[in-house]
Amino acid sequence: MDQAQQLREIIKAEHAPQRPLARIITVTSGKGGVGKSNVSINLAIQFRRMGQRVIILDADFGLANIEIMFGTVPKHNLSDLIYQHKNIKDIITWGPEGVGFISGGSGISGMYNLERKYLVDIIVNLAELDAIADTIIIDTGAGISSAVMEFLVASGEIILVTTPEPTSITDSYSLLKALNQQERFSRDNTMIKVVSNRVNSAEEGQQLFNKLNAVVARYLKLPLTYLGAIPQDQMLARGVMQQSPVSIQYPNSKSAKSFEKIAADLVKKTESEKYKPRGMAAFFSHIITGRKLNSVKNTGDKASGQ
What we know:
Layout: H1 3-14, E1 23-29, H2 36-49, E2 54-59, H3 65-70, H4 78-83, E3 93-94, E4 100-103, H5 107-111, H6 116-127, H7 129-132, E5 135-140, H8 146-154, E6 157-162, H9 166-180, E7 191-199, H10 202-219, E8 224-231, H11 234-241, H12 246-249, H13 254-273, H14 280-303
Helix pairs in contact: 1-6, 1-14, 2-13, 6-14, 8-14, 9-10
């Protein structure tokens, strides 16, 4: 039995029918600066207000956007789970309104080269998040790096944040094109949902989606779902400056109300889609297995002189 199969067997045992599985939503964007982390945080707050237990995993390595916006500095990150033998509960920082977040740091990239015994321990730890949270939001880096692609390929539910800027639309298409070219990407098991951010009206948000969707449908044949629009809002920018999410600082603002509506629609859509949660262990095992397969493939290519 190879290592990938062994990991699958462990995950299968850990996720017996009676064990709860968290819903995992991966938030991404084709370029930086489009408000991706703001979407992650404010949706988390709105989910929390609907009674859900929520944890954000900040996987945007090198940028501490989540902790900056929460005004909280975490004591530990995912690296401490790996190298300092911390428990999963030790590395969760609890932010406003009971939203938890985990700083990824360099921990995720470090997981790929670990021995099996350490890998198993980490995945078992990550599986505990399914009992702690109903929804886990993965805030990825921006762009089409291999790390971002690995997260998206492993995701069953993706939220793509875009803005009316021509470069944002172009980069959103480039990201979807890169995702579509991944060997392990399953279009049949992945829902891609779009949020139009920083628009002047609901009509502009719909037009932005229509424009992106038309190109994606024609050239990539990927189905997209429109979640809604977040208006250009001075209150949102002011909340960022105050290191407090707009949903908390200005709950009656236009942007906060839009986040509230999108979060409610996400819950309704999930019920109608009969969404099947994957859980954190399966999510990360997918990433690790994919990285190991790529490593083997690259080694084989080098050996054959390709």
